């Protein structure tokens, strides 16, 4: 976000405001991920195919990609506190509409509203840390805010699955409506005024589109996120049909995946602060191994469970690792860079979920695993090139000195 240095508001409880921002990102991304663990139940109750229900993930993701820059630029000089409050209120409505959906068209309409909320909340949250806490705490605050994204990515699915198994898929959406309402109340209590001195512009957006370091980070995002969601959207049928897991253990297994993902988030967050390219390389390698291991060792309950934990560890670092790269690539245009990152991230989700659905309804899950491995392999090659390029640049700088 463009602003005059030192003009961030002095929040009475700055870290409570940071927690409120983290919970906002957690709420919107958990809402986004919720259908993943509920696909089978939704398809049965709404009398449609599993691949069609996959649109409940890809559609809002695609719209979030469109809405993120629109919200950031269209917000102009409006206080970001009130924009976030409005988006959280819409998130409550979207979850209630999903819980009450009478057919797949109703559900998809509700999920379109989720896409609008997701693009706006995530993009604006990217620039909040420096406005809420003193300079020495910005790194930690950023980690906490985007920790909400990481935690939602790895815990949203098991939480939704657990609630869905206990009380049905509609109850999972209703629970998210209640949680989002609680986050809205906390936001109104804790978040200070977030006025802006200069808002992002189309000219600034066009300028960042030519930023080569940002371009590299966005391409890595597309490959890693797209490849991941191509498979993860259908993790339930993967575990049930390929690994032969007992349905009663599904929630527990996905919770284990979530815990592994949180561990991966903290490991990657620490490493990315010093070596972002090397961190992304390690993550890409983990996401390449995951589908390959499912193809070779994942045909038993024990093997499928072990691979799932490796998967969570690898993907848990994606959000914080890629966001660290993006923010470093555009330190003077944080809100624009965040919006572009959110856009590409969600294009990756949309393309991954859609193409995964096409493959599931066609060749089957084995084809999904092979294509997912190809995406991760391409990201690994790019990350290795970037890492080698960074080392050469460092060597040349040292020799010149």
UniProtKB/TrEMBL annotation:
Bilayer topology term? Multi-pass membrane protein
Q: Where in the cell is it found?
A: Cell membrane
Every copy of the Major facilitator superfamily (MFS) profile domain together lies at 17-391
Q: Work out whether the entry's keyword set contains Ribosomal protein.
A: no
Which top-level group of life is the source organism from?
A: Bacteria
**Alphabetical list of CDD domains matching this protein:** MFS_NepI_like
Which Gene3D superfamilies does this chain map to? Answer: MFS general substrate transporter like domains
Task: Spell out where the chain crosses the membrane.
Answer: 55-75, 82-102, 108-130, 137-160, 172-196, 217-243, 249-268, 275-294, 306-327, 334-355, 367-388
Record keywords, A-Z: Cell membrane, Membrane, Transmembrane, Transmembrane helix
Q: Which residues form a coiled coil?
A: none
Q: Does the keyword Membrane apply?
A: yes
PANTHER family per UniProt: CHLORAMPHENICOL EFFLUX PUMP RV0191, PURINE EFFLUX PUMP PBUE
Q: What is this protein called?
A: MFS transporter
């Amino acid at each position: 976000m463009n602003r005059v240095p030192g003009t961030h508001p002095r929040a009475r409880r700055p870290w409570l405001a940071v927690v409120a921002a983290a919970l906002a990102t957690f709420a919107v991304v958990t809402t986004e991920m919720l259908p993943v663990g509920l696909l089978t139940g939704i398809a049965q109750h709404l009398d449609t195919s599993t691949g069609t229900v996959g649109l409940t993930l890809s559609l809002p993701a695609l719209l979030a990609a469109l809405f993120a820059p629109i919200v950031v630029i269209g917000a102009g000089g409006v206080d970001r506190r009130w924009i976030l409050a409005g988006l959280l209120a819409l998130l409550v409505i979207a979850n209630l509409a999903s819980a009450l959906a009478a057919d797949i068209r109703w559900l998809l309409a509700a999920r379109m509203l989720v896409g609008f909320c997701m693009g706006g909340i995530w993009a604006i949250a990217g620039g909040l840390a420096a406005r809420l806490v003193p300079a020495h705490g910005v790194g930690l605050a950023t980690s906490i805010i985007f920790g909400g994204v990481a935690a939602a990515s790895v815990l949203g699915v098991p939480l939704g699955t657990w609630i869905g198994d206990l009380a049905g898929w509609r109850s999972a959406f209703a629970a998210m409506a209640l949680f989002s309402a609680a986050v809205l109340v906390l936001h109104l209590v804790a978040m200070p005024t977030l006025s802006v001195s200069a808002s992002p512009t189309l000219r600034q957006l066009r300028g960042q589109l030519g930023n080569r370091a940002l371009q590299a980070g966005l391409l890595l995002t597309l490959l890693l996120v797209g490849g991941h969601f191509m498979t993860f959207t259908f993790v339930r049928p993967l575990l049930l049909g390929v690994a032969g897991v007992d349905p009663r253990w599904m929630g527990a297994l996905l919770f284990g995946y979530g815990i592994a993902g949180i561990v991966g988030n903290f490991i990657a967050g620490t490493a990315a602060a010093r070596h972002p390219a090397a961190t992304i390389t390690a993550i890409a390698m983990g996401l390449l191994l995951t589908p390959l291991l499912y193809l070779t060792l994942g045909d038993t309950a024990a093997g499928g469970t072990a691979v799932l934990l490796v998967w969570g560890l690898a993907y848990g670092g994606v959000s914080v690792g890629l966001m660290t790269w993006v923010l470093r690539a555009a330190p003077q245009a944080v809100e624009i860079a965040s919006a572009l990152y959110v856009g590409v991230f969600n294009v990756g989700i949309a393309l991954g979920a859609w193409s995964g659905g096409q493959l599931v309804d066609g060749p089957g899950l084995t084809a999904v695993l092979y294509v997912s491995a190809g995406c991760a392999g391409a990201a690994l090659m790019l990350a290795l090139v970037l890492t080698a390029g960074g080392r050469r640049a460092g060597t040349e700088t040292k020799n010149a000195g």
